[in-house]
Amino acid sequence: MTEPTAPAITKEELDVLIREGVPLVGGFGVVIDSLGAGTIRLRLPYKDDFVRPGGTVTGPAMFGLADVALYGAVLSLIGRVELAVTTSMTINFLRRPPPVAIAAEARILKMGKRLAYGEVLVFSEGDPEPVAHATGTYSIPPHDPVKLAVSGYQPPEAE
């Protein structure tokens, strides 16, 4: 398997796109920790607004972070194709996250011409065990497929 060269979008370009193109989640204060071809790690700093009764991080905050993480992973392969949209997404909440910052790690499992499929693990800050797992499909509008070939992306081997 060849290693991917570089993402098709920079962290800076993606940061602006998240803040301006996805303002609801962008306004949460999402931080891009790392970006690779087909992978991304985002962090959502803790805010009292993200806590629900019972002292846990609210599901919509985790879902929003997972969705924008998958969006970033898709764009890391195809570049700034802003009209790539979520077709479906499922999240499973695995355990109760404490009221701390959360992180999302996304990776693309299959990239086609019109659809991308990936998964996202959500973690509480400082804990190696995930608090949520999401899978999703993105619809990809017509774009320049040369960017995908140049990225050198190869899907991960089945485990």
TrEMBL record:
Q: Tell me which species this is from.
A: Azospirillum doebereinerae
Q: Name one GO molecular function term.
A: acyl-CoA hydrolase activity
For this UniProt record, give its keywords in alphabetical order, as a comma-separated list: Hydrolase
Q: What residue intervals traverse the membrane? A: none
Where do the Thioesterase domain residues begin and end?
Answer: 54-129
| Pfam families from the UniProt entry | 4HBT
How is this protein named in the record? PaaI family thioesterase
Keyword Ribonucleoprotein in the entry? The reply is no
